[in-house]
């Protein structure tokens, strides 16, 4: 058995899941066709969970699902179509998912975009906020009935240390009043991911649903596809400044998500931010670790919830 007290930067998904039986669990992983999503889905399936992964490209999704079935021997792995940058797609997906499954035990909001040019979602939202936060907000909220029926259940929101770059600017969510900065926009969306976990946990913890936000670490995946040479130079300079910014392999990058979704030691905790398979401290100065206090404020989380309901045009009472 792995020494769970010594989990850290280099811990892998298989180490996190050693000795954990997920044969009774149903899991959903958004963005399951590349990088962290594939490894997250694979590791859960390898330990017995029935896993649905989402994909914008269903050919790719079916190929990944087939590969996981073959490598793990778990036939309860499938793919479903979802584009988080389209509220219509989110609604169609959740309707289809709930028609197939009335329970859900593990929801990992893994998909996202990072550092993209100034673009809009199908519904006119700034792409990073619209995809990373609003798409997952709507999807998760519509799946709450299945999470409640599957309780005890957990929701994991992939955030990032990039939340250090920006709180949520409620006066200018779409950068219409200020010049667009793709990294500030990314940081804002990642702060929103944490605040969503805080608000969701506050709403559902008494009914057996807990929510967590995680920083997976720095991993070279398709998430960085929008980065150019200038972005890479900035990243390298930041890494040099911080001094301990070590890249993780994918199996370690996905480990904190899997840890949040399954760790028995987190059973009575929620609304928290994790990094390196552990609970991160509140840290308002360091750029190398920790969570900013503005990302954990319940009042801000509640405000974001109300704003998000207004933006997606749907209210949730649970």
Please, could you describe this protein's structure?
The chain has 318 residues and is an alpha/beta fold. The chain has one domain: 3-Layer(aba) Sandwich (Rossmann fold). The chain contains 10 helices and 8 strands. The chain has helices at 13-17, 35-46, 58-72, 87-100, 127-149, 182-204, 229-242, 250-253, 255-262, 298-312; strands at residues 26-29, 50-55, 77-81, 106-109, 153-158, 209-215, 272-275, 278-279. It has an 8-stranded mixed beta sheet with strand order 3-2-1-4-5-6-7-8, sandwiched between helices. Strand 7 (272-275) and strand 8 (278-279) form a beta hairpin. Helix 2 (35-46) runs parallel beside helix 3 (58-72), helix 4 (87-100) runs parallel beside helix 5 (127-149) and helix 5 (127-149) runs parallel beside helix 6 (182-204). The longest helix has 23 residues, at 127-149. It is globular, with a radius of gyration of 18 Å.
Backbone CA Rg? 18 Å
State the helicity in percent bands. Answer: 40-55%
Shape: globular
DSSP helical segment count = 10
Count of distinct strands: 8
- State the CATH class: Alpha Beta
Strand composition percent: 5-15%
Query: Uncertain segments of ≥5 residues (pLDDT<50)?
Result: none
Strand order of the largest sheet: 3-2-1-4-5-6-7-8
Mean pLDDT: 93
CATH architecture annotation name: 3-Layer(aba) Sandwich
- Going by CATH, the homologous superfamily would be NAD(P)-binding Rossmann-like Domain
Structural class: alpha/beta
Number of domains: 1
Question: Which H/E pattern describes the elements?
Answer: HEHEHEHEHEHEHHHEEH
């Amino acid at each position: 058995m792995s020494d769970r007290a010594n989990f850290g930067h280099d811990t892998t998904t298989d180490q996190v899941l050693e000795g954990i039986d997920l044969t009774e669990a149903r899991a959903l992983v958004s963005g399951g066709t590349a990088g962290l999503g594939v490894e997250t889905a694979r590791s859960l399936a390898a330990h017995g969970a029935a896993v649905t992964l989402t994909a914008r490209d269903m050919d790719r999704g079916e190929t990944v699902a087939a590969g996981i079935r073959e490598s793990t021997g778990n036939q309860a792995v499938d793919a479903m179509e979802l584009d988080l940058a389209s509220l219509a797609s989110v609604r169609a997906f959740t309707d289809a998912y709930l028609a197939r499954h009335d329970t859900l035990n593990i929801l990992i909001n893994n998909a996202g975009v990072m550092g993209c040019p100034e673009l809009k979602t199908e519904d006119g939202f700034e792409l990073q906020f619209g995809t990373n936060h609003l798409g997952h907000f709507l999807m998760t909220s519509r799946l709450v009935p299945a999470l409640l029926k599957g309780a005890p259940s957990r929701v994991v929101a992939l955030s990032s240390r990039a939340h250090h770059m920006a709180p949520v600017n409620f006066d200018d969510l779409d950068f219409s009043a200020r010049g667009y900065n793709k990294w500030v926009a990314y940081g804002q969306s990642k702060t929103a991911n944490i605040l969503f976990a805080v608000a969701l946990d506050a709403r559902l913890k008494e009914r057996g649903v807990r929510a967590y936000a995680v920083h997976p670490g720095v991993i070279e995946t398709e998430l960085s596809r929008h980065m150019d040479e200038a972005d890479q130079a900035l990243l390298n300079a930041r890494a040099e400044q911080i001094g301990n910014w070590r890249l993780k392999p994918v199996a370690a990058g996905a480990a904190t998500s899997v840890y949040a979704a399954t760790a028995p030691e987190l059973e009575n905790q929620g609304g928290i931010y994790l990094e390196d398979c552990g609970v991160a401290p509140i840290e308002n100065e360091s750029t190398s670790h920790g969570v900013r206090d503005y990302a954990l404020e319940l009042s801000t989380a509640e405000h974001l919830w109300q704003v998000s309901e207004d933006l997606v045009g749907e209210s949730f009472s649970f």
